[in-house]
From TrEMBL, chains A, B:
InterPro entries: Aa-tRNA-synt_II (IPR004364), aa-tRNA-synth_II (IPR006195), aa-tRNA-synth_II/BPL/LPL (IPR045864), Asp-tRNA_synthase_2 (IPR004523), Asp/Asn-tRNA-synth_IIb (IPR002312), NA-bd_OB-fold (IPR012340), NA-bd_OB_tRNA (IPR004365). It comes from the Bacteria. This is Aspartate--tRNA ligase. Homodimer. Catalyzes the attachment of L-aspartate to tRNA(Asp) in a two-step reaction: L-aspartate is first activated by ATP to form Asp-AMP and then transferred to the acceptor end of tRNA(Asp).
């Protein structure tokens, strides 16, 4: 007999079927046993009118007859006839996966990650993550971007930055990529529009709910832009399309978390950083410290402002100061103390950052000198600007932060299968 | 005026258009100038009846009138009216990108990678790579696999193996993932079917045409398999679908390399390793050394055999010896000296490797003891087998090798944007 998947039960009403999956829960009333069986397409109740040998957690194969059952929350159930244990648990589960909520603290949730991932509510997070990846892949191709894969082992700590993880690379010292920045810019000279989905590594000793040391960045870079608002426009459109795909295909997983997905405006509000600082001071009486561009509380209030004034969960903050942005960021023509750089906030948290980049060799070298950055090891990148790079810009999206914010999870680590932080390298 | 892309010229016959792109080539006949302009959708000839300031390599914007031109290989051309230099080259290109072939040796090709990538024939390689990624993403979802992203920084050098790159991770020592093996198996317990596209790092000091130290692995793992032929069947189907997508969407790039894509049989021939060794000895009088499973010459001849006897560019070699396969590989029931492990060869080169895995805790531990592998640091992985893992198996495909073999490139490094080998960390 051929196995059917649980989401095919409906089409098999009244028929004899074979299903395979895991026993998520069971109730034994003596002469009648109720099993909830879960496979990767859903769950269903199976009723046996005799005892079975199965235990919660076992992997089983069940033959029985599918039938409509309006009293069941699944709409259907299976009258079980034969049960085979395909693989049995040999140790009790450390928690009850059948409860509506695991109610574990974050550190326990992650210590037992290999098992907590089996909980339906945790699974839902990563089903949505799968749809996010799919949505980005599809949308970027619709926008005529070419998918690229660039190296994660770099010859030198680039971008003039610290916070690189060091790798022993044969007899050399290498570093792990913090972003595909240089490579995606180089690729603008090749394909004009490129995107990459790949890991980024940051050796920053953070202990926050929104930082990890390894994450998946959704990058893009586009050439022949008129100005940096072109980049903002494309990102706006991409986010809108991706959200519509998540809404359409992820409904059941959003429901599991009682989340209604945010509407993405056709034109997400765009406010200059200097302006939003003023607004936050005036409206919410909060002063963002002078020395920094924006702090977490400032981001939260900027999000609040966007919601209250534009009914938008999103807001672009633009024109970040020259002093805070990397050397390749295009300074503003009107005011060289500001840049054509932006962040995208979603529910009061930065989820993407981007900018127009400098594309003329001379300007780039001058900007590096102003920032006192040495070209050592970056020559391969700098040289490309001698060869007619078009005006260009792009972004990086923190994929896990996006899921964190969609589902309003307490920590970004809940949105990563096996997160890496200062203390956590296992599992 | 709104820019149109070069692949939209046809729809604009007789109209005034604005295009943007790079000057790939130019001929100046005094009172008439021919420019070949390339954007990310194609190339077209532009004719000016006066001199222009553009040089080969410049990024330009051109206004003119689109018209049919049967004498042009592009089918259309543009009668140029206005040319604006968007960004100009300030240094001469080191080679002529307009030639049909770059004819550079591999090391020069890679030293000048940021520019050699602009050659149409090199671009074609990475357009096909983009389509390969797309094909795999789409096909795996059609097969109901969930896309996952697993960590690339690992807490310990796992799989009992050497050849890990070491990373300084705060006050700990960590290692770069050689494969997502443990994590994708763990995820079988969560989603039953998972796939991952991500980097894999191998610290092996190879100097061959088919090895690099960082590559993109197309991984998959599936649960509730009947036996390892289930895995072989799914992989067979996936390769067939992916190739049909590459054939359909990549025709122009295949043509650029004069390649007719291989037909993928519905059932790729499957031969046991012991059997193919015999065949190679008898048919081609070549003896694969006893001590190893199969060598490159053996693979080449196995490919030749598949072509001559089954008219197939593909062949599965199965039942690799227990002694050669990792500890998690399922031994054969009939003969424990052999495993349920296989390789897929394409045109005489291994492009994928896979197996059924051991899913019972006791058997796994016993197999490790037999192989004298210590569990240190792998407990998080081993423990999962106490919790009813279903029979499962999967594969890893070397994505760049697949492109290398499709296009019959001399080295895998030609199929990687910025390859990493023992000597090469830059660009």
């Amino acid at each position: 007999m051929e196995r059917i998947l649980i989401d095919q039960i409906q089409e098999n009403d009244g028929k004899k079927v074979l299903i395979k999956g895991r026993v998520l829960n069971m109730r034994n009333l003596g002469n009648i046993v109720f099993l909830i069986i879960q496979d990767y397409t859903g769950a269903i109740q199976v009723v046996f009118d005799k005892n079975t040998e199965a235990k919660t957690g076992d992997a089983v194969a069940i033959e029985g007859t599918a039938k409509k059952e309006i009293r069941s929350k699944y709409g259907f159930e299976i009258q079980g006839e034969k049960l085979e244990i395909v693989s049995n648990i040999t140790e009790d589960l450390p928690f009850d996966l059948a409860k509506n909520d695991l109610n574990l603290n974050l550190s326990t949730l992650l210590d037992y990650r290999t098992l907590s991932l089996r909980h339906p509510k945790v699974q839902a997070i990563f089903k949505l993550y799968d749809i996010l990846l799919k949505g980005y892949e599809i949308t970027m191709r619709e926008e005529k971007f070419t998918e690229i894969k660039t190296p994660k082992i770099l010859g030198a700590a680039t971008e003039g930055g610290a916070n690189f993880f060091k790798v022993k690379y044969f007899d050399k010292e290498a570093a792990l990529a913090q972003s595909p920045q240089f490579y995606k810019q180089i690729m603008v000279g090749v394909f004009e529009r490129v995107f990459e989905i790949g890991p980024a590594f940051r050796a920053e000793p953070h202990f926050t709910t929104r930082h990890v040391n390894e994450y998946i960045s959704l990058d893009a870079e586009a050439g022949f832009i008129k100005d940096f608002y072109d980049v903002v426009d494309i990102l706006n459109r991409v986010i809108k399309k991706v959200f519509s795909i998540i809404e359409k295909e992820g409904k059941q997983y959003l429901d599991t978390h009682n989340i209604k997905i945010s509407e993405v405006p056709d034109q997400i509000p765009r406010v200059k950083l200097a302006e939003i600082k003023k607004i936050i001071k005036e409206k919410y009486n909060y002063s963002i410290p002078e020395a920094i561009d924006i702090d977490p509380e400032g981001e939260r209030l900027a999000g609040k402002y966007a919601k209250e004034n534009f009914n938008s969960d999103f807001i672009f903050i633009t024109h970040y100061p020259w002093s805070e942005k990397p050397f390749y960021t295009m300074p503003c023509e009107e005011n060289p103390e500001e840049t054509c750089g932006f962040d995208l906030l979603f529910k009061g948290l930065e989820i993407a950052t981007g900018s127009q980049r400098i594309h003329a060799y001379k300007q780039l070298i001058e900007n590096m000198e102003k920032k006192k950055i040495k070209p050592n090891g970056m020559e391969f990148y700098l040289d490309i600007f001698k060869y007619a790079m078009p005006p260009h810009g792009g972004w990086g999206i923190g994929s896990e932060r996006l899921i964190q914010q969609i589902l309003e999870l307490g920590s970004i680590k809940e949105a990563i299968l096996f997160p890496r932080d200062v203390k956590r390298l296992v599992p």
